[in-house]
Amino acid sequence: MRHAIAHDEEVRLLEILSADLALLGVDSDLRRSLPGLAVTTDVPGVPLYIFVSESGNYFDWRNAEMRHPIGDVAGAAKKIQGFLRRAEAVEQP
Q1: Is the preceding omega at residue 44 within 30 degrees of 0, hence cis?
Q2: How far apart are CA 67 and CA 54, in angstroms?
C-alpha cells in the first residue's frame, strides 16, 4: 500500500509535533529518512517511535495501538506526554 501522504508532508507534521513535545518538556529526534520521531523515554536507549499513519490521518505509536488525529498536533503532544507518564508510573517500584 502506498502512503496517502507525501514524505515531505510527513516530515513537516513530525517537525511540528516535535516542537509541541519540546514545549511540554519531552525530548525527541526527527528521523527524516523513515520518517519518524524518536521520543526519549525513561529507559536509556529505548525511544518511543511516532509515525504518520499510511492514510496520513493520524500520528501512530506503539505499533499503531495508540493514535491521534494529525489535525490536532497539540492534543497529540499532550496525549504522548500522558502516555509516557503512565508508562513511567508503571515501571516505578
Answers
A1: no
A2: 12
- Domain assignment present for residue 16? The answer is yes
- What total number of domains does the chain contain? 1
Q: Which three cell numbers stand for residue 1?
A: 500500500
Any domain includes 2: no
**In Å, how far are 7, 38, 67, 70, 92 from 23, measured between CA atoms?**
25, 16, 20, 18, 25
Please say if the pLDDT value at position 2 is more than 80.
no
Position 87 scores a pLDDT of 79
What's this model's pTM, rounded to 2 decimal places?
Answer: 0.89
Amino acid at 35: P
Distance between CA atoms of 43 and 9, rounded to whole angstroms?
30
Residue 1 within a domain: no
